[in-house]
Specification:
alpha+beta, 1 helix, Immunoglobulin-like, 3-stranded antiparallel sheet
Length: about 150
């Protein structure tokens, strides 16, 4: 009987060591980045003083935000766009503004600074605020240039 208890104890000890060693194994690492072939793209529209966004194609799932800038390039507002398909524009200050949908592209590097950057993934809307009223400004139409005739060798 003592021989059976000794063997049972050894088996139990081996099972406990095996069970404990499972969580100690190294976790797999995943490179979380936006692949070069992904081209996230969405469309934003101005409806009164509200901006709405469509679905983001090729969405990698990172932070998505609305970014409103004044004509001088200063940020007026950023707002989460992942959970808000529409956002009210700030209309208390008169002026010309632009809004774009931006996606965060992470960068895995050392240091204490921000690890990545926001990049535009939608059309840019320019609008004007006058007396609390929002007016969409049409983008300038690119000048059409005549193509140069092919050069003869």
């Amino acid at each position: 009987m003592p021989h059976i208890c000794l063997n049972l104890t050894r088996v139990l000890a081996a099972l406990v060591l095996f069970a404990v060693s499972i969580p100690l194994r190294a976790q797999p690492t995943y490179k979380l980045d936006v692949k070069p072939d992904l081209k996230p793209l969405a469309t934003i529209k101005l409806e009164g003083a509200k901006v709405t966004r469509g679905d983001l194609a090729d969405d990698p799932g990172f932070r998505l935000q609305y970014h409103v800038k004044a004509a001088d390039g200063k940020t007026v507002m950023t707002s989460d766009a992942r959970s808000n398909p529409a956002v009210e524009l700030p209309v208390k200050d008169a002026g010309t503004f632009s809004i774009v949908l931006e996606l965060f592209y992470p960068a895995y590097k050392g240091g204490t600074g921000q690890k990545g950057e926001f990049k535009a993934v939608s059309n840019v809307l320019q609008y004007k605020v006058e007396e609390g009223k929002v007016t969409l400004l049409e983008p300038p139409v690119p000048k059409k240039t005549e193509p140069e005739p092919p050069k003869k060798p």
